[in-house]
Design brief:
Layout: E1 3-9, E2 14-21, E3 26-33, H1 34-43, E4 48-52, H2 57-66, E5 70-74, H3 76-79, H4 89-100, H5 113-144, H6 154-160, H7 173-204, H8 209-213, H9 221-231, H10 240-247, E6 251-256, E7 259-265, H11 271-286, H12 293-306, H13 308-328, H14 335-338, H15 347-351
Parallel strand pairs: 1-4, 4-5
Antiparallel strand pairs: 1-2, 2-3, 6-7
Helix pairs in contact: 5-7, 5-9, 7-9, 9-11, 10-13, 11-13, 12-13
Length: 362
């Protein structure tokens, strides 16, 4: 088959495969079963296999790499622009093929099994934390209906539940039993969460970047494991700014007529990772007096100019760029170099004439 690429619209059992020739013509666009798709990938000469970065995409990407193909996982939001008005499996597969031929469209790197396992544990841990928070709020809400109040924190809640009176004028014995059972559910869920978290950190310690990432202020074991599981080696990014834009920590840009307006951060990408980076940034700035002098000077300058909340987001942006360097380079983190002030006596800076700000910026 003299094909340029094969576009696959992924599904559970029946897939849509669109084969595009070397001159851009559609050679075929047909439905195929799961078993026959595996045979087609195995028997086709090495080519480009494109698909949306959705459920099961990394499995099919690893299978394509196994048989010598180049797998391109495309973000679904970019494929949608090539689909047109009508939606069907055939149009979706054709849109994937059209998007895969665009040179500036970035693809998602295929995760290996180890990184896929780590990303899986990151997602399971996030789900368990949501369930534990929901169960904690439910216990507190039920108890409040009977005039019972507990101290803040999960540990304080678990220690207070056994001391609830079996029966009183405000609640019955059945209420006490129900709250005790919910407390046992909370204990089991916390134990499962701790086990998954320990397994996740053990899996992340295999990567050399795990230790390098934790040298950055604000990056602990959880954030380091999340970065490795979701980002990998960061080879898909050309620089740290691309990675920061992928996380959604850069300002949204709107410009026309030569004027550019920078607004709030875009908040695109993985929300869990962005939340963890901002939390790590907040924890560092909270204890700014105990940080390195170079970092303290950099952070205090932003706080004085823009305020504490913007400084938190600014350092989360900076933290993402530093994490990019830690993932790409096999060298220890140097905080003095990372927050080094620009040299005003640099020969290039001395030859440049200062440019006044436009009046509308003041």
């Amino acid at each position: 088959m003299n094909s340029k690429l094969m576009a696959i619209d992924l599904a559970k059992n029946v897939f849509q495969v669109c084969v595009i020739g070397v001159h851009g013509q559609v050679l075929s666009n047909r439905r195929i079963s799961r078993h026959k798709l595996s045979e087609l990938i195995a028997n086709t000469p090495p080519t480009i296999i494109a698909m949306e970065a959705c459920s099961s995409a990394h499995f099919w990407g690893r299978l394509a790499h196994k048989h010598g193909h180049e797998a391109r996982l495309l973000p679904p939001q970019h494929v949608k622009a090539f689909r047109g008005v009508q939606k069907s499996d055939g149009h979706d597969a054709l849109a994937i093929g059209e998007a895969a031929q665009r040179p500036k469209l970035h693809s998602v790197p295929v995760k290996d099994i180890q990184q896929q396992d780590l990303a899986l544990m990151v997602q399971v841990r996030a789900r368990m934390k949501r369930e534990r928070t929901a169960l904690t709020n439910q216990i507190r809400g039920f108890a409040a209906e009977y005039g019972l109040s507990f101290p803040k924190g999960i540990a304080a809640l678990l220690s207070a539940i056994p001391h609830i009176p079996v029966e009183s004028d405000m609640h019955s014995a059945q209420t006490s039993r129900l709250l005790a059972e919910l407390g046992l559910d909370l204990i089991r869920l916390s134990e499962r969460l701790d086990a998954v978290e320990a397994q996740m950190l053990e899996q992340a310690r295999v990567y050399p970047a795990f230790a390098r990432l934790q040298q950055i202020p604000g990056v602990g074991p959880i954030i380091a494991a999340t970065l490795i599981g979701l980002v990998g080696s960061a080879e898909q990014f050309e620089n740290g700014r691309q990675m920061s834009a992928w996380v959604g920590l850069v300002p949204r840009q709107r410009g026309t007529g030569g004027r550019v307006h920078l607004g709030h951060i875009t908040k695109v990408g993985d929300r869990r990772l962005r939340t963890q980076l901002i939390h790590g940034s907040r924890s560092v700035l909270r204890w700014i007096d105990k940080q390195h002098p170079a970092f303290r000077q950099w952070a205090q300058g932003i706080i004085e100019r823009r305020g504490e909340k913007r400084a938190i987001v600014a350092y989360a942006n900076k933290l993402t760029r530093l994490a990019f360097v830690a993932l790409r380079r096999n060298e220890p983190f140097d905080i003095a170099k990372a927050f080094q002030a620009p040299q005003l006596n640099h020969p290039i800076l001395l030859t440049q004439e200062p440019r006044p700000y436009p009046t509308h910026c003041w």
